[in-house]
Design a protein that fits this description.
The protein has 754 residues and is of the alpha/beta class. Helix 2 (24-42) runs antiparallel to helix 3, helix 23 packs across helix 25 (443-449) and helix 34 (698-710) crosses helix 35 (717-730). It is globular and about 90 Å long.
Amino acid sequence: MSDNVALVSRGAVAVVVAACALSTSCARDHSDANAECKRQLAAKLDAVAACEAAFAGAANVDTARSLVLAYTARGDDALAALAARNPGGPIAAEIWHRRGYKLSGAAGLAAFERALALRGTDPLGQVRELLAISARHEVNDDVLAALAIDARAFDIAMSTGDAIAIAHARVAFATELSILGDNVGAARMLADAVEHLPADDAAFLPAGLTLLGAIEYNRGHPRLARDAWRRAEATNEPRTVSAAHRNQVDNALRAGDLAEAAALVATDPVKATATHALYEARVALGRGDAAMATTWCERGLAKTDDVETRAMLESANGEALARQGSDAGAIAALERSIRAWDSELEKLELDELKQWAQSDEDRRAPYEHLFGIYARGGRALDALAVAQQYTARAFVDGLASRSVSDTGASAMQVAHAEGERAVALQHVARSLRASKSSKLPSAAELGAALLRSVVWTYFVADGELWLVALDRGDATIDDLGPLAAIRADLDAALAFDDAALDRLGERLAPAPRWHDLDSNTIVHIAAVAPLDRLPFVALRRARRRWIEHAAFAYVPNAAVLVALAAERPHHEAAVVIGDPRADLPGARAEAERIAAHLSVAARLGPAATIQTVLSAGNTELLAIASHADVTPGGASLRLADGNVTTGDIIDRGLAPSEAVLTSCASAATDADAWGALAGAFLAAGTPNVIASRWALDDTISAQLVADFFAADGAHHPAIALAAAQRAAIAHQVPVSAWAGLVALGTGDNAKELQ
């Protein structure tokens, strides 16, 4: 067939394909033609004849792509002639597909959608166009639309059984899940995708390997991250090579392998950039050459206006200046870094903030460095102010629910659940930004507002654990040593190992902290990860539990405590809700006991409605005994006619003087101690919450709650809970059965903080 011969019509192609189905030699001939087509394309020869022969034998996505590429190589006129002869079918679809990549904005998206319409019933062609459409939505920051389209592509690819199409869809789907903060789901999608992609797959293999490395890095698996990034670099895709190379520098620095980091920086393929200067600075810091690190940071700052790059350079420079003894210069640099990060974060919705501080060392670093400077200088109030700024972000982040991906769910089900979660979180983010809990007082204002309070703030800075203690206006700071030294005890304490609880009880609050404390003193605990899940009340000193020395209330940070202490009107009587779905007889009995104690009628079964809860914002006390669920939209209370979510609580400003939540694990989710109903009530302005951090035995829980109300829990919740827990200790109730019930917030409804 010569180059000038017209393309075989679609009808003729159908006849040829039908004939080939009956002849193995014909199939072999056309397979050979396809190989020749690709060989000539690779050699940049005039491959039209060979590609036409291949297409005549198998009119599929691959051969259509090869044919269009062959005509494209001959120029626009040749491609236009091909398009005129083939207004429909796979060839036209392929031409519109290529046009989509050349056009921007809505025009490019429309081209891909037209290509999709021309794919007819060809599933592999549909997958290809859907992934292109998804990528265009992602570029336009419409992640939810991209996720839904990727889910559709994935389900179609799975129906074909084509390993490469499935792998492509997995990589695309995993990208959206990662953007939405679901790294667990993304890792599942990538688990075997990259193993099914050919080495010359320039579109999906580099992206999949790069993302896999990032996920493993954030999950604390440096070797797996390095392996993925090395493979990504080996693809030789230009944009991937540089990114993968520099990611390996981060990985080596985190692993403490300075020699590997230095070698990688020395072979950086792109050296005349601010990012290269940043890595040179980090290697210099690793070598102890702070002056050289400053030199590199200054070079990098002079080369870029990118906000994130400048934030990282300022952070590294702050660390370097501090090591050189220039605290003033270091403080200024670190404050610039924090302002830069905050300016970027204010533009984002909550789903994009998910775990930003906990998972990204670059963002966390300036807070830690600045805190460390103030802490080492004994400037307790200034250090506390930095901790407030950091933990305010962590509190907002904590209201995000855990991953909703499920290995048993279809891609469409996962996409729907992730979309529901993202919409709910965006709603929560808008509400939180207008709430009092998001406002940060200055260090001086913080100290003045807490003149009658005792607040212990635990903060980790550069691997060192610190305790900032505010004791009735007097701020002091303790260096509690390396965090690494107590990690094993922290893990053991979660299993209520008494030896670990003894060691932590002595270490986490030195003897001077206990002076002037008594059983009616409320100590407010604010702790960052990994101490945020520690059962402080169960720790021991002098052979007694902490709860036997004082009462305790947990707060996200001291700034939130100040916001919660503001006066607010409460005019209505208590509301008690129980057993909404008539499936919790223990909850019904508990609600009846609480209602009797408070002299009100319990709202049980069908009367325990959403409206009953949402209208209780001005009550003195709201008590709810029901199931608590973790849904795509976050933690929720299960009621007779539906669920009340964290977003509902915050948006409606549901803020009774006190909320008593005796549902299962109402103060915790799988992801974070504040990412639940209790955190939502605090964010909405409820000054006091009693909730459980894990499921409790019904009988023991009922006794704890009864003892709590008998000790005037409606007015002095933290002190009353301490009394109930001391009674449990006296009756030798296992610590795991009572320590999960916690007081959150101010701890007292009957007195002001100052």
